[in-house]
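INPUT
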Amino acid sequence: MRETLAALEAGEIGVEEAESRLAGYATTDAGRFDAARERRRGIPEAILAEGKTPAEVAALAATALDTTGRALVTRADEATATAVASAVGDAETDPTVDRDERTGTVVVHAAGFETPSLDAAVAVVAAGTADAPVAGEAAVVASEVGAAVDRVDDVGVANLDRILDQVDRIREADVVVVAAGREGALPTVVAGLVDAPVIALPVSTGYGVGGEGVAALEGALQSCSVLTTVNVDAGFVAGAQAGLIARAVDAARTE
Amino acid sequence: MRETLAALEAGEIGVEEAESRLAGYATTDAGRFDAARERRRGIPEAILAEGKTPAEVAALAATALDTTGRALVTRADEATATAVASAVGDAETDPTVDRDERTGTVVVHAAGFETPSLDAAVAVVAAGTADAPVAGEAAVVASEVGAAVDRVDDVGVANLDRILDQVDRIREADVVVVAAGREGALPTVVAGLVDAPVIALPVSTGYGVGGEGVAALEGALQSCSVLTTVNVDAGFVAGAQAGLIARAVDAARTE
Amino acid sequence: MRETLAALEAGEIGVEEAESRLAGYATTDAGRFDAARERRRGIPEAILAEGKTPAEVAALAATALDTTGRALVTRADEATATAVASAVGDAETDPTVDRDERTGTVVVHAAGFETPSLDAAVAVVAAGTADAPVAGEAAVVASEVGAAVDRVDDVGVANLDRILDQVDRIREADVVVVAAGREGALPTVVAGLVDAPVIALPVSTGYGVGGEGVAALEGALQSCSVLTTVNVDAGFVAGAQAGLIARAVDAARTE
Amino acid sequence: MRETLAALEAGEIGVEEAESRLAGYATTDAGRFDAARERRRGIPEAILAEGKTPAEVAALAATALDTTGRALVTRADEATATAVASAVGDAETDPTVDRDERTGTVVVHAAGFETPSLDAAVAVVAAGTADAPVAGEAAVVASEVGAAVDRVDDVGVANLDRILDQVDRIREADVVVVAAGREGALPTVVAGLVDAPVIALPVSTGYGVGGEGVAALEGALQSCSVLTTVNVDAGFVAGAQAGLIARAVDAARTE
Amino acid sequence: MRETLAALEAGEIGVEEAESRLAGYATTDAGRFDAARERRRGIPEAILAEGKTPAEVAALAATALDTTGRALVTRADEATATAVASAVGDAETDPTVDRDERTGTVVVHAAGFETPSLDAAVAVVAAGTADAPVAGEAAVVASEVGAAVDRVDDVGVANLDRILDQVDRIREADVVVVAAGREGALPTVVAGLVDAPVIALPVSTGYGVGGEGVAALEGALQSCSVLTTVNVDAGFVAGAQAGLIARAVDAARTE
Amino acid sequence: MRETLAALEAGEIGVEEAESRLAGYATTDAGRFDAARERRRGIPEAILAEGKTPAEVAALAATALDTTGRALVTRADEATATAVASAVGDAETDPTVDRDERTGTVVVHAAGFETPSLDAAVAVVAAGTADAPVAGEAAVVASEVGAAVDRVDDVGVANLDRILDQVDRIREADVVVVAAGREGALPTVVAGLVDAPVIALPVSTGYGVGGEGVAALEGALQSCSVLTTVNVDAGFVAGAQAGLIARAVDAARTE
Amino acid sequence: MRETLAALEAGEIGVEEAESRLAGYATTDAGRFDAARERRRGIPEAILAEGKTPAEVAALAATALDTTGRALVTRADEATATAVASAVGDAETDPTVDRDERTGTVVVHAAGFETPSLDAAVAVVAAGTADAPVAGEAAVVASEVGAAVDRVDDVGVANLDRILDQVDRIREADVVVVAAGREGALPTVVAGLVDAPVIALPVSTGYGVGGEGVAALEGALQSCSVLTTVNVDAGFVAGAQAGLIARAVDAARTE
Amino acid sequence: MRETLAALEAGEIGVEEAESRLAGYATTDAGRFDAARERRRGIPEAILAEGKTPAEVAALAATALDTTGRALVTRADEATATAVASAVGDAETDPTVDRDERTGTVVVHAAGFETPSLDAAVAVVAAGTADAPVAGEAAVVASEVGAAVDRVDDVGVANLDRILDQVDRIREADVVVVAAGREGALPTVVAGLVDAPVIALPVSTGYGVGGEGVAALEGALQSCSVLTTVNVDAGFVAGAQAGLIARAVDAARTE
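OUTPUT
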């Protein structure tokens, strides 16, 4: 809050903007940025790059960095990532910029920014090659919330040995995200093998009837194992919910 | 054919009816019965009881018995089963009538009728209690075609041990039918474990979005294992196709 | 396990049944009962009464009581509840039978059965009168898992004061289930107001396009707040997942 | 009418065209333009640019300007806007051309054209950044009908404080349009807070199941508050209907 | 408010109930009744009888009568209507009970209750016989809000003369509700003929693809005339929204 | 047939090709061309350009010209039209090539080819500008079958005067095709005004729910007037069916 | 018209009713009856019994008989048929009442009523037993319009010989209606075999995905043969459209 | 296995990779390649090129060639095919590379690789030109499994003579794949004509409602003949399942 008031005093922002920031959001040309979200639920506000111009994303990212010490951009193509890097490059905070090429996620941290570190683990499990990018988005988000993330890839049910080999490892997590497209059988199988809560993350693979992740989502909704689900390709939501559960576990552990 | 001609000579049927029978179908008040189907593909013509009155079903069953030596009625309630038993009771062929209560299937055999006996095995696998009746319909049909049928029940993927315990047994079959509702993961898992062709048989369990077997059917269509599928609850079709494959194998074995 | 072996020794059950029970499930005429589920995930196996005869449900409930010390029946009409009470009435365990009329849930506990007691709280929030039964099913299941359950009813968003009045109370829970039908706006609003993980529970109210809970489910999948969802009317799944999270929190608290 | 007859007399148009214009529509190469619509309902005929070439749009706009003194083009890209500006540049009426870049709306007024000025107010409320362009289209249309328009942006329900802060302002309007995509909870919340009639304007945001505005539309149809809705992205219709209501209120005020 | 406090003083209700009523809703065994809704928007809270027992509806109606001086029940069968009449029969307010048989609407007014009387008119237009009950529900609600209601029946577009004959009459209304099922062409035709705002009310007639009102609803959403719509069979919502517009017009007239 | 035999004798084609042609279809690299269709039903085989390369279309067109004296290509872009013109340019038959730019239809006639001339009329009615190209495809096909075609454009129901002005003209036709997108009310209105059989031709206009012609198609299926329909944008089918009816009428007239 | 005026003079009906009848429709308690429809298109107005009480149907039938000399009731159960017979029993016209039990169609003719007799033939073809009732409805309607109707049953494509045997017979018709459910292949096959226009009549058989006639309807819309279609089970519409075509042919023949 | 160990010994791969390969899959940068699939079911693992970069596909193909002696790439455009050819060009195994242009299938065989040769035949039947590529994919896969493949093209039901001409040829196969789009009637017709098991392969042709192969798939699910189906365009699955059946027949023949 002090920074906002200082900026007001210094004439860098007006009264209206100060009021907005204190109310929990800041304004850029591309719309308001919800800085308060992080304070409320511990989840960084993600900037979905799809449907925005590189310039709009960069402006939102700069605001996020300015108000919360970091920025999280999802589904950014190369042009957008470059625009973000350039926009935050001159920041006094001397930030680091990391882009994961396969997921299109860009993470910006102000120098000295400390990611929370929770005493709780999230396993992010993916069925096949095509499911990995969406799983990766979930993993980045859970990491930013502060969870210890363990990724387990290529364990689709077409060859059961793969998943059976990894069960012990998955059982060590406090919460499990399972990404799968096509028929989406993996979340059901995993939820039958572990004790922790399982979140299904359907992926938009598959063509024809039930394609684009629909069969996978319906399979999660109909699962004969206990699990909850997010929408198709909603890696951010799955990672954030896993992060919230990890935060609850961490809080209980450190009470 | 001789019987038809004899019946014509004896004045029991008219010329038109004789012509119809020779062309491969017989007429009752409830419509034509396709006696030729059995000759063409080795699959007994099934009489679907749903949407017909007990009297209509009984008339069709009597015609079937008369023209092919047996009758197969599916989804018959008790009243229909009784009507069939009564209708065929006076037949000169002194038939046997078997009804499976859970599937509602009624099988009538003329005395002395010999069910074909194929040198080929069909495994009919079901995920849970609710899937058993539909699986049962498939099993009866495959049996009537002549296959040796082995039923494996209650091996849903929510508890993988169940299916893993039965893999060796299922591997002995020449073709496998796998019935499952809800999320329908079982056919995908089984097709990843066996060498024989697998036919998915989605079952109309589950409520809400993807319920009534839709998720299970879409899961079969999107399966990352190799398999083909029939429509929801189409036990007759799954059993008949398994029977056709068993016939092909039997024919090859006995060449 | 000892009981199973004793029952075998005593000739009450055969070898095959003993083997099945040790493998984690018991057989009744109505199919196998998965006793191991409770051991695996701490969630009692629920017996869905819909689509089964009262006699089938009663047999499964008796088996559940016998093998796990309790039985949980969902969506039971009065006839089924009576059949269950009668079936377990003679049990040596002298069980108690509780039926919640509005939800149709029946809980049977053997005398001396101790429900687990977790140091973790679940809030179950419902939008309107019509949402209460489904919310109630979730509440019963979470209670049986051992969570402390707080029910908050009639806080639909058509009158925001209702929900704003209850926010402090809801914030005390470690995990929140929010049941709503029609347009299903409540889970999104609640997830914007609390820090704990939120599970949406869409309810099959509403008619016309988007009715039967479809709009509510799609609203949860599209929510601009972070939350996960279960299928329409899946009170059991929502309560069980909340219970799993409560177990994780309880385990962390008591480490 | 006089202008039409004068044009006929001057030989600028033929008899057939004159007859058409008097019957209420004019012909260009791209089809007939319904000039009478403005006379009938006070709503300017909008020219939807999508699916037409820049030349076709420009021709229709020139006819609109010619026959009604103004032109309203929606969803125009830059090329189309340029074509329109160029086409009407030579008009004797010396028109002004305004283009709103985010909504793609182009408004052309003949010099001296007086937009109606109604004594009635329309509030146009939008949930988030992505909803603003569609809301903007509604606002432009309502303005052209003559209403006093107040735009309230970025008040999505994920942070209730935003909307609660603006309620008094919204309550001053005679009719309210509420644009929201994703889960579309905002129209329901607003309709619970104000007395005026509310029109929901679903926006095609969101991906996966219920995406592209479907969940938002179904949420409006299922709303537990009283409101009516238009189709996804139908900013023109929402703005025009709000304008019709404003006209009714204005007429009553000035009786 | 005085009545609530008096009831509290008299010991007829407890403190908690008094608080609830002052907060705007009262509690019965069947859930809370939103008495404040009438004060907020002038629309009586309707009690949808479908899915509730006669006793539940009667209890809610008695509370409504008690707290607001009237009760409005929709889709009540005869048993429910009787239960309501009986439940309110002993009320000190000596109420009148009117039931419209075709729509199933029951209106209860306390003796001396004065329905608001607005200086504004609503036309309720119906295409065919099957559309009349749903239109009737809209008409009753608009009347209860206080509008002067004119019903125009049997003017479906299969015979255009019918609707053309009634145009002058419909044009006298300040707002128009148009009920139609099947292909739902009538709202589009009417909105092309009148100046007032039009609300489409799709009706669940028609079978096969697009049946149950779906084609009519989609036709309203796609209309090439300006109009807004409610969900299929949502007579209450259409009537209430028409009432809100009538209230706005009345307020302007009487300023 | 003589030409085929002559070509065989001349060595221009092989025996297999001759046999194919006599059996009613000719082979090109892009597949078989069904020359017999014209002989069977009087409808020229249309070559749908969408999804084929210009070269493939040109080859099929050349075969069509060669075997039937004409070629009809639908949905051809400019490149395809050019390829066709070039491919048939060298033909000994010295054909004429006509392309309708708005519909993308290309008609090629061998010099001296005589289009059949039926004593029967088809009216092709279109609601708006966007419906005209699809209507145009129907008109071209009906013309090629030999009907006298009268096109009536821009008579959408948003302004009833337009269609009422043209009723007498439409009543002169023996069969009527009515093209409309959006809500598709026009076919229902027209079928209520004329005696001749009406064929609805839904057009893929409109966005959001019910868009892309779905509402228009469902409106035709649900119409309260008597009419039949073709699929969305199926101008060829509508024109061909109208042509078949015109042929039947012509045959009756000339008996 | 004279009868109406006489009834007015005799005081049997009032001025308003007389005016209505002359305008083309009569009023009963169950709504208006469109007597003019018959005059306009030669199609008797059908009274759909589904969703109406026997008394309502009987009243409409009596009015129909009174104003047009006949009545056509579709989908009447036995109670409705009895009510109709009883209602028209006392009519001075001494009518005949025919009910087809399988289709539920009831035809009432005043004594001396002469059904039109057209010089044109309609073939009504049905695939299987379950398709016959819907086909029957079409046949009755076409007969009432006056066409010579030939019914061809049980010619489904599972046994091609059946349909090939009947081709010559079907080719004698001027227009062909083809009823089929399940996969609905028959209309496509027939349209490939005959020259006359073909109308597909999808039937609501089949279960699971694509069931209830949906696959059959979509098959007609996608047919690679030229045909038009009506909605699922719309026997009346198919028969009436066939009748309209027959009328056009008859008119041409008798010019 | 020896090769893997040799590669390990030679230091070409690490211990982890060796372990993976022995467990049945190999790792490339683009994910794991399931080499064990071929050993398990005799079906070569196909690399679906869609959604992968040419480089990713080439890497997977090289791994496949390395571990199984061949590679099968489906839906490869020219750039991908070139990348594959280039990537395997330097392999010591001196492979052959065959690309089918119409199907986009690329087959790579190491020098000396012997495709299995089964004593069993697969017929691959296609309705029209547009169905041939998908059918071709099935044919290539069945060939690679080792079946003798006979392709029968252009036998759509719009002209029954075509398919009747080819029946004897199709009857010689042990299993039949039938590819068809649009209304998809061909699989039903073929299954009524032959004794062997039939697999429907719906193709994504057709536009409007039921387009993109949906009507064809639903037609297969609803077929009144016995057959099973795969998803739309799933040529690989159809060919692989046919191959599995051929393998079963071959095994029986050679016992």
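end of record. DSSP finds ten helices and eleven strands in chain F.
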